[in-house]
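_Backbone structure tokens_
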Amino acid sequence: MFADPFFGLGYGYGAGYPYPPPDYYPSQAATSNDNNDVALTAEIQRLSDEIQDLRDERKLDEQSRERPPASSGATLSAVPPSANTVFVLRDGRRITAKNFAISGQTLWILNENTARKTPLSDIDRAATEQANAENGIEIHLPEPK
């Protein structure tokens, strides 16, 4: 009788089949190992990022120590003025403010709760600059357009 190497004795898949049957149902251990691998990879990436951040921070710290100090003629002050800034309106009213901003042709008076806006054309520039100079505050308002 003729024996086929792939089909055994010619009928079905006998003992001559050269490969073991595939594993259709992977074991639970293999799945949990995959989950562990993903978790470990994520943790390694997080730690690598943290190390890089620390290296960058140390490099910036070293660079700031190597920088020469500012020239003795330059002074920087972050101290706010002790007096409020006074804005004198053309009709004689006065507005005092600790916080303000000028944007375009608008003066914004700012406090914790509100922001009021006033057109620069309503402000008496000369009177405002003089009133603030008397209080030791130097302010220069732009020309209204």
